[in-house]
């Protein structure tokens, strides 16, 4: 299984939705809060090219935000990415 990394904040409903989807699939993930860490937010923006959360990575592949992950799920493509 590929490593999943989520950059999140505590108050983001899309972050909660992303975590909920992954939990429902039984997928563990590494959550990195950017709420109070300027350093982690900078790393997130450098990796993703985006400023918003969540930013989701499966392995080294940038998936995007929750809407992007949900679209992969609808297309039936998410499980294959998670499997590696």
Automatic annotation (TrEMBL):
Pfam families in alphabetical order: Glutaredoxin
Keyword GTP-binding in annotation: no
Keyword 4Fe-4S tagged: no
GO molecular function: electron transfer activity; glutathione disulfide oxidoreductase activity
Gene Ontology biological process terms, A to Z: cell redox homeostasis
InterPro entries for this protein: GLR_AS (IPR011767), Glutaredoxin (IPR002109), Glutaredoxin_subgr (IPR014025), Grx-like_ET (IPR051548), GRX_bact (IPR011900), Thioredoxin-like_sf (IPR036249)
Glutaredoxin domain residues: 4-63
Record's keyword terms, sorted: Cytoplasm, Disulfide bond, Electron transport, Redox-active center, Transport
Family according to the record: Belongs to the glutaredoxin family.
Annotated function: Has a glutathione-disulfide oxidoreductase activity in the presence of NADPH and glutathione reductase. Reduces low molecular weight disulfides and proteins.
Protein name, UniProt field: Glutaredoxin
């Amino acid at each position: 299984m590929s490593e999943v990394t989520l950059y999140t904040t505590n108050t983001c409903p899309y972050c909660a939705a992303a975590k909920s989807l992954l939990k429902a699939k039984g997928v563990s993930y590494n959550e990195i809060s950017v709420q109070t860490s300027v350093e982690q937010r900078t790393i997130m923006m450098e990796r993703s090219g985006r400023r918003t959360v969540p930013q989701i990575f499966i392995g080294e592949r940038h998936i995007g935000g929750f809407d992007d992950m949900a679209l992969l799920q609808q297309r039936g493509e998410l499980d294959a990415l998670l499997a590696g």
